[in-house]
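Exam review. A common question shows you a sequence with its structure tokens and asks you to describe the fold in words. Practice with the pair below. Do the first one on your own.
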Amino acid sequence: MSLPDICIGTSAGDYENNVTRPRSANDLHGGGAFVMACTAVHRLNA
């Protein structure tokens, strides 16, 4: 599985900064959030 178009880094900024930041596939910021969301859904369905 690949998670494309994840913003690199977590620097704060305005909207324009957030939508124009470089993107990467499988950046840990997006991958970690995805795993946490899957765990939460699994717990709800258990």
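Now try the second one, then compare your answer with the model answer below.
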Amino acid sequence: MAASKVINQQSFHDGKVVLYQLENRPKRLWLCRMKVPNGVGYIYRGTGTSELYEARKFADDLLDELRINVKLGKSITGPNLKRLVEEFEESSKATGKQSNRDAAIVALLKLYAVPYFAKNKVTEISQKEIARFFDWRRQNSVKKVPKEATIIHEMSQLRTFLNWCFQRGHIDKKIEFERPKHDGQRRPHFDGKDWTKLTRFLREWVKQAEHKSGPIIRDRTMLTNYVLILANTGIRIGEARGLRWRDIDSEPTDKPDEFNIILHVRGKTGAREVVARTSEVQTYFQRIWELRTKEIGTKPSKDDYVFGDVRSSDFKRWWTTGDRGARLFAEPAVTSTVAELLPADISAIEESWKSGSQLVIAIPLTFSKRAIFSSVRKIVGKRHHRGRGQRLMKESVAKYPIGAQFRVSALKMDLEVYDLKQREPELKLWQIAQRLGFSSKLSEDEVKVRGRESASAEKKAAMSVAAYRKLNHARRIIEGVGKGHFPAP
């Protein structure tokens, strides 16, 4: 597009200030170009008026303001927005890992703000210019047209960046901008028909798990009642997470045989009481109570979380209550050294003696040492079949026996791989290995290299295989625990 021709040009202050208009502009607004003494370059501003007197007054005020800034040693033009975005990104990574919010702010600025404000310095960004920016943003979306809720969220992100600029001294004051009214767009209405469809599906879903492993039945039962409780009480997810059995109460109503279920919850808005819309909620809580009782072998404590499990902070108490850990998983006591037994010691090793994990030998002390050693060697040779360096798994007599030899460190790493994949399912297998460091590690340069023929590609493939094996092993162990086997072969 050809540049517009300048018309009606006016000069003031020995040519330091030039006011001009451009042809083919319907409003014929005056524009200003200014050269400040001891300053570098020119300042361009729109005066916002078609009246010469008002434009001249605007230019004089701006010239005085810029002269003051020069005397105070302040920047007149201000830093470029693109450079500040790069500085903000580096600052957000200074702690080692960039937060998701900071990453989203950088993405918004690079995608929309930097292109729009390409010709502006950060000091030239005003409330009015920000309003124009979001008008432009609505019409120039990379994907679909943004909803007002998205615009409100992006305004919050832009405000965070501008506040950072203020704290770093890049702008003289905080920029406030008006938040648009919400357009009232909501998600599609969830009506009674949809609710009936959901509850019918949940019932069938639980029934289909009757012949599956224990964890699957448990998870489906818990999720179904979780949905029913939240839907009929209106409590938030965070409030449900902190709900304990002692927080559930009931009170009678005016009608006989009817009562209200009251929940005392705490969440982001503080503590509050919630009354369930129907007394049937008690049935949903009762199902979870029975499920938890069956899981832990005793009635849950009033301080237990309603939606908790054995991997919660209450695991230690779960393990020690009623000596449960030893009762379910422990082997009979075995002496750790070869020692002389006294008559009183026989009863203490009786179980391990019967199970074959210990051998008791009667030695007549009237025999010579050579005869004793020879006899013991023959007896031990018949009963002890372990070779040098071989780890022999003894036969377990525990209620839930350990089924194979294992290393605690290896099981711990398998669980870390599984947990990381659950938390961040988008991670690639080689990235999991890189994060946890159980395989060969890539340098920063190798991570950036792409292509199937590169040396780093071979490393990534090897790391992916190692991570897959650990992840697959963890899944087999979890599946086996539900069937009473640990660890999986």
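Model answer, second protein: The chain is about 45% helix and 10% strand. The two ends are 73 Å apart (CA to CA). Full marks require stating both points clearly.
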